[in-house]
Amino acid sequence: MRIKFLAACCASVLSLNAVAQKSQPVVINADKLTAKIQPTMWGVFFEDINLGADGGLYAELIKNRSFEFTTPLMGWAVKGKKINEGDVLVLNRQEAAENNPRYLRVNLKDADAPTDATLTNEGFRGIGIKKGLRYNFSVMYRQASKGLKMHLQLLDENGKAVGSGMLNPEQSGTTWHKQTTGFTANTDVKKGKFQIWFEGSGSIDLDMISLFPADTWKQRPGGLRADMVQMLADMKPGFVRFPGGCIVEGRDLANRYQWKKTIGPIEERELIMNRWNTEFKHKPAPDYFQSFGLGFFEYFQMCEDIGAEPLPILNCGMACQFNTAELVPLDQLGPYVQDALDLVEFANGPITSTWGKKRADMGHPAPFNLKMMGIGNENWGPQYLERLAIFTKAMKEKYPAIKLINSSGTDPDGARFDLLNNAHRKNKADFVDEHYYRSPEWFFSNAARYDSYDKNGSKVFAGEYAAHTKNEPNGPNINNWRAALAEAAFLTGLERNASVVNMASYAPLFAHTDGWQWSPDMIWVDNTSIYGTPDYYVQKLYSLNKGTNVVDIKQANKVIAGQDSLYASAVIDQNKNELIIKMVNASNKAKAQNLQIKSGKKLGATAIVTSMSNDLKAVNSFDAATKVSPVDERVNVKGKTVTLELKPYSFNILHIPFK
């Protein structure tokens, strides 16, 4: 298929040995500071889409552990020659446990072999098993008298046990108890299963059947998948936006995200259907739910772990306008506003406050130091502005220091955007959240988008962006180098205008290769492996090299935003005492670019160039995770001049130390 590209970026890919062409010199005035760069400049956006949380970041291996899916035994298989009708039942205690009413009752007689009575869970697209790793099992149970033992097994794809343990429920009576045990796997398996086979006679009630790998992030019991968190920590993001985009709104208001239901004891958190369960007809996901084992406390904790500012987004009384467009009447908006106020208290309040005490009871008496919050996600229209005004008044009266992010809708232009953007700026909003899901051509041609914005007005949060490139007609959008290169070019414009754009994040973040519904995505996982896309490395390079101040960089006395297929920005890092220059060569020809640096400081004799380049169609994969990734090389600095060899279709970062 012929790839359409910018006229300046020819369709064919020439050899990297092509003769470099000289162009006009680029002049960097390292003493002319044009903007301060916020520590929050480059962050990440998380949403539970593509099995991002359950089956992904949240390391629980058992699907439907509390039997609360719409189909109570979805994910489970009950078999055995000694199981008769009525021996295994799903019961509902209703009012006694409204958030987690269902449980399983097993009633057996003389079970003494693995084939007599088994309960098998398929996991989230299978269970990833690692050789030598311990797996921690827990269960809530109730039994009138002792009688049944539970043999625990991890099974490979052929049903062979590759790890086993045993749990003998120790307590009896009418109350519920929790018991734990663990065992070690003896081989690697990509798509295994978990099985319990019962031994003995008796009756037992089971709930919250859970299995976690021991190697969670920071080895926290019931915690997060370590390799996924590590990929975020490696980026050193300035913020994490959570819990997402459209799941904040829900298909209808009953399906919206309610943060208060995601904190406290795990067994008391109410599971709901994930709104992506029914959204994509081409990728049905009837087993997609939110257990909220990854709730607001865990989001705040993860942000603290990786040194990122928390950025929660809350429902503003509006359901998804593409689905139901359901609204809360203005005179009934009070509980929604109170949720926002209470969240600040939960995050920042003293342990003597109502919600601060709840945080402390969960193990974090110190405040999380929340500084900002989003009101609504991609909502639009006058109905949004009406509700936003009520939220803003209440929040600014009680917590004036909290910065509020305002939605500008779904698109970066058009009547919908203009209505919101103009209103927000008239009202002096703290942040306007702009989203761009567009073609690579759009990103290349909009590198100068913010050059004309008011630098003293409301700040921009580029909350969701990704270049969408189809692999084939009507095929999925893929994370190839063409898309990432376009993003790299666009981000030079964001960095150049750091006085306007204070925050930016790619979206979506994670996708499971066997459970994705939306693409492209920055990081891909299966049950045991992970890799970053070319987009990931572009975002990471910007985040790790954000600097402290923007400096002036021009060619022919103009900002560099596409002339001769060149894009550029420059910063200094006052902490590291270096100049950092970012340049994109979006053409199919190599360029020998002369850089002339004006500075009162002396420069080091050598500099480091970090670069990425490849065929426009190149992608990373589980088998070639770093095919498109950065490489470093050293170049000479001659006085105040550097000649930078820009390969075709390349993103380059030059680090020049000051003496």
UniProtKB/TrEMBL annotation:
<dbReference type="Pfam" id="PF22848">
    <property type="entry name" value="ASD1_dom"/>
</dbReference>
<dbReference type="Pfam" id="PF06964">
    <property type="entry name" value="Alpha-L-AF_C"/>
</dbReference>
<dbReference type="InterPro" id="IPR010720">
    <property type="entry name" value="Alpha-L-AF_C"/>
</dbReference>
<dbReference type="InterPro" id="IPR051563">
    <property type="entry name" value="Glycosyl_Hydrolase_51"/>
</dbReference>
<dbReference type="InterPro" id="IPR003305">
    <property type="entry name" value="CenC_carb-bd"/>
</dbReference>
<keyword id="KW-0325">Glycoprotein</keyword>
<feature type="signal peptide">
    <location>
        <begin position="1"/>
        <end position="20"/>
    </location>
</feature>
<dbReference type="Pfam" id="PF02018">
    <property type="entry name" value="CBM_4_9"/>
</dbReference>
<keyword id="KW-0732">Signal</keyword>
<dbReference type="GO" id="GO:0046556">
    <property type="term" value="F:alpha-L-arabinofuranosidase activity"/>
</dbReference>
<dbReference type="InterPro" id="IPR055235">
    <property type="entry name" value="ASD1_cat"/>
</dbReference>
<comment type="similarity">
    <text>Belongs to the glycosyl hydrolase 51 family.</text>
</comment>
<dbReference type="InterPro" id="IPR013780">
    <property type="entry name" value="Glyco_hydro_b"/>
</dbReference>
<dbReference type="InterPro" id="IPR017853">
    <property type="entry name" value="GH"/>
</dbReference>
<protein>
    <recommendedName>
        <fullName>non-reducing end alpha-L-arabinofuranosidase</fullName>
        <ecNumber>3.2.1.55</ecNumber>
    </recommendedName>
</protein>
<keyword id="KW-0378">Hydrolase</keyword>
<dbReference type="GO" id="GO:0046373">
    <property type="term" value="P:L-arabinose metabolic process"/>
</dbReference>
<feature type="domain" description="Alpha-L-arabinofuranosidase C-terminal">
    <location>
        <begin position="463"/>
        <end position="650"/>
    </location>
</feature>
